[in-house]
Structure formats: C-alpha cells, structure tokens
Design brief:
With about 325 residues, this protein is α+β, with helices and mostly antiparallel strands. It has eleven helices and twelve strands. The strands form three sheets. The chain has a five-stranded antiparallel beta sheet. Strands 9-10-11-12 form a four-stranded antiparallel beta sheet, with helices on both faces. The protein is globular. The termini are far apart. Bound molecules: flavin-adenine dinucleotide and iron/sulfur cluster. Flavin-adenine dinucleotide (FAD) binds next to strand 2, helix 2, helix 6, helix 7 and helix 8.
C-alpha cells in the first residue's frame, strides 16, 4: 500500500473543502482500504467522515432521516426501521458479516465499488479502473455480472444490497458539494455504464453524502437475496419489493432488483403490470416476464434470467398473501 495522510474532518464543510483540495473520504474503510491494499485506489490523503455528526436516525413528518455516518448494523437494528421498513433492515442484514456491518457506513455502502474480478486486479485491463483499456469480463469471467442495462464497455454489477432496498423505497440522498447542498432521488444516484463506466454515480468529485431520507413506508415490504453461500457473499440476484393492497387488488407496487445491473435496477415494467391488477399468480408471472424479457444475458450468466423470474414471482406471491 502506498503511504497516505490521514485526518478527521471537524464538520461537513471542512470535509468538502479537504476533498476540493484532493482528499478522499473515508467511511468505515471496509471497501476503500481493501482497494488501497490491492492498488486499485491510491489516495494520498484520507479525510475520515465516519466521525462527523451524521450518526443519527431521526423521525421526519413523512418517514426517517438517516445520517450518512450511521453504521449498517445500527440501521438494520433500529426499531423504526425493523418495524416500518423491513425491506431495508433485511437487505442490510443480508449483506457482508456482523463485523463488517459494525464498521460500514450508509454513505460508504452506497458508494462501494463493483466486485468484478478484473476491476480488482491491477494486472488486467478494465475500462472502469483504466478508461479505454478494455473490458475482459465480456468474454471472460462474467457469471455474476449484469444481464440488464450493460454496455460494450462494462458489464459490472452494483454490489450494494442496501441500495436495492432504497431504490424500491424511493429514498432521497442528501449531498453537500462545492456548490452547496442538493438532493438526489433513488434510484438516480447510480448510473448505467454507457461509454463512461469509470463513473459509478452522478456525484461530482468531492461530493459528500450527508444523509438519506425515507418517505412514507409501504404497508408490506420485503427483501430476498440469492447468493452462492449463506453468508458473506454478494447477490447473484436479489429483489426488494414494497406493495400496498386494496383487498385483492394491488394499489401500488415498487420493485427493485439487485445483482443484475450497474445500478440497483428499478423494475418499472413489472410495476406497471402489477399496479391496479389482481394479486394473483398470473399477474406476478406477467410482471416478472415484462421485466426480464428485456434481459440481455452474457455467455455464462443466462441462468440469472429464469432464476430472477422465479424468485421475483415467489417473493411477490409471499408478500401479497
Ligand atoms: C468480505 C466482504 C463481504 C461483503 N459483502 C457484502 C454484501 O453481501 N452486500 C453488500 O451490500 N456489501 C457487502 N460488502 C461491502 C460492504 O457493505 C461495504 O464495504 C461497506 O458498506 C462500505 O462502507 P464503508 O463505510 O466501509 O465505506 P468505505 O470503504 O469507507 O468507502 C467506500 C467509498 O465511499 C466513499 N465514501 C464513504 N463515505 C462517504 C460519504 N459520506 N460521502 C461520499 N463518499 C463517501 C469513499 O471515499 C469510498 O470511495 C462486503 C464487504 C466485504 C469486505
Ligand atoms: S465489467 Fe466493468 S469493471 Fe469489469 S472488467 Fe469490464 S469494465 Fe472493468
């Protein structure tokens, strides 16, 4: 690892000023420090934002405001989150391990980098790490990479479970940048790779995530994750779903998919089929088909399409039962 300077920011403005001067934000360090050890990230100066006073979970008139420095374990275990946003609590608990969740922050979780093996190996080309060098994953190891929204330049997936839940809930991300504060609705923080896969999000360099705000909770919500082993493993496929029923009819449905794209994938086609339809097996199958018929699997990940279809149908059926 290359030598680097470490400092703690006194407040958000000082952190943003340090970033404007070339510093890199450090949250819990559970992703960034790994990337530094691998030589993928080589910051000369770290500014620790995990100790900023952004560590509260507060009630708002509509929902909750979650500070960006709140640890994943604290968020997952918070009574209001467990009771009103089970999809978020379940997604967090499906991610990483207990020790990692004790360190990982909300801001860092949203901005963790892809686990594509070529991205993490500095001896290999990778358009995300070194723009213009190529994407060996397309023809190489891509079993766990994207089936939706990928480009010829990058087929990576976003690794965050929490982001999938937030995309379904429809959260708002609060950001402080050099030009002041602004908000970004989820989904919308992350971007598809297109011809610029080096950019994971719409953030500008030096933008600090300060909080995530949740709106009114759906009456029913859930998160289901398929992975290669029961713990400590990223999603092969996941679904976050939130629904409101009116008798046997689906009044509103919000669905997001994980492990399938460069972004937490909001399943708008599935939602359009579900909204106003009877909560039946036929509706769930039609919704899954509407979303996944658009999939463009690669050579070795076509198995994700029927997997996603089946898991989505089962998850919706259980949620609406
Ligand atoms: C073995 C292992 C298994 C894992 N399994 C899973 C899993 O199954 N599911 C899952 O979702 N995650 C998983 N993770 C990833 C883990 O959730 C992330 O590493 C963690 O959430 C990152 O949070 P952090 O605070 O440690 O971020 P850091 O590593 O500190 O930072 C990550 C990035 O965010 C930036 N950053 C941090 N805070 C801010 C801020 N407030 N504003 C702007 N930028 C900021 C940093 O500069 C850096 O670029 C796993 C990690 C490991 C090591
Ligand atoms: S899929 Fe993306 S991250 Fe992986 S090698 Fe290709 S460009 Fe790099």
């Amino acid at each position: 690892m290359k030598p680097f300077a470490y400092e703690r920011a006194g407040d958000a403005a000082a952190a943003v000023a340090a970033a404007a001067d070339g510093a890199t934000f450090l949250g819990g360090g559970t992703n960034l420090v790994d990337l530094m050890k691998l030589g993928v990230a080589e910051p000369l100066r770290l500014v620790d934002v995990s100790r900023l006073p952004h560590d509260a979970i507060e009630e708002t008139p509509a929902g909750l405001r979650i500070g960006a420095a709140v640890r994943n374990a604290d968020l997952a275990g918070h009574p209001a989150v467990r009771e009103r946003y089970p999809v978020l609590s379940q997604a967090l608990l499906a991610g990483a391990s207990g020790q990692l969740r004790n360190l990982a922050t909300v801001g860092g979780n949203l901005l963790q980098r892809t686990r594509c093996a070529y991205f993490q190996d500095t001896t290999k080309p990778c358009n995300k790490r070194r723009p213009g060098s190529g994407c060996p994953a397309r023809e190489g190891e891509h079993r766990n990479l994207a089936i939706l929204g990928h480009s010829e330049h990058c087929v990576a997936t976003n690794p965050s479970d929490m982001a999938v839940a937030l995309a379904a809930i429809g959260a708002t991300v609060h950001v402080l940048g050099a030009d002041g504060p602004r908000t970004i609705p989820m989904p919308g923080l992350h971007r598809l790779p297109g011809d610029k896969p080096q950019h994971d999000t719409v953030l500008n360099p030096g933008d600090l995530i300060t909080a995530v705000e949740l709106g009114a909770p759906a009456p029913r919500s859930t998160y289901r994750k398929v992975r290669d082993r029961a713990s400590f493993s990223f999603a092969v496929f996941s679904v976050a779903a939130a629904v409101e029923l009116d008798g046997e009819t689906i009044r509103e449905a919000r669905v997001a998919l994980g492990g399938v794209a460069h972004v937490p994938w909001r399943a708008g086609r599935a939602e359009a089929v579900l909204t106003g339809a009877p909560a039946t097996a036929e509706t769930f199958a039609a919704a899954a088909g509407a979303e996944l018929d658009a999939a463009q699997p690669l050579r070795d990940n076509a198995f994700k399409v029927p997997l996603a279809r089946d898991v989505l149908v089962r998850t919706l059926a259980e949620l609406c039962a």
